Amino acid sequence: MINLTNIEKVYRTSSIETLALNNINLNIRKGEFVSIMGPSGCGKSTLLNIMGLLDEPSKGTVELDGQRVSTYRDKELARLRNEKIGFIFQSFHLINDLSVVDNVEIPLLYRSTNGKPRQTYAKEALEKVGLSNRIKHFPKQLSGGQKQRVAIARAIVGQPEIILADEPTGNLDSAMGNEIMNILQTLNNEGATIIMVTHDENMAKRTHRLIRLFDGTQVQ
């Protein structure tokens, strides 16, 4: 499904060159639940951004469903991100001035989905994560765990094939972290391919496969 070959990512300024990823080779199969671990600054989020088509490698090839990503134009990449990939972030990235249901609808706005179906899909996604009783609330009225569930509902509202989760339990206590993992495992059981960055060994053990990075290099 996602194939990375000889991926290198270099960040350059006028005086400094930083090698963030070095010779990464990965194949993520459809339906897998994969975790990525490593110390801070080792390239985990950079790798996730490249797989999510948010960033380009300096060298190497990225293939999605057998097609080289480099062949796509910017508009095509934006469409792929919107239709095939759902993103979950550690710090939620909710819009405080929008209600819960309005936050969840955002990906559908970019698809020009009409208002009534859009709200129906958003409510269905919120029901899936156990927040159907909070649709009119605002983010400031929610706990951290509830905010993350809203973020998950937003990620899945368009029924993406791939979910990329960057430290989805990082800001939560262990009990709420386990609840979020239960939701992710349910989504994976229903067919979603999930790639999760985490610092938590216990969470990583609940996934199918663990990929370790150190200083931008894949550890065998």
UniProtKB/TrEMBL annotation:
Pfam family, one: ABC_tran
Cellular component aspect of the GO annotation: membrane protein complex
Alphabetical list of CDD domains matching this protein: ABC_MJ0796_LolCDE_FtsE (cd03255)
Domain of life: Bacteria
Keyword flag ATP-binding: yes
UniProt GO MF annotations: ATP binding; ATP hydrolysis activity; transmembrane transporter activity
Database matches in InterPro entries: AAA+_ATPase (IPR003593), ABC_transporter-like_ATP-bd (IPR003439), ABC_transporter-like_CS (IPR017871), MacB-like_ATP-bd (IPR017911), P-loop_NTPase (IPR027417)
ABC transporter domain boundaries: 2-219
UniProt KW keywords: ATP-binding, Nucleotide-binding, Translocase, Transport
Stated family: Belongs to the ABC transporter superfamily. Macrolide exporter (TC 3.A.1.122) family.
Descriptive protein name: ABC transporter ATP-binding protein
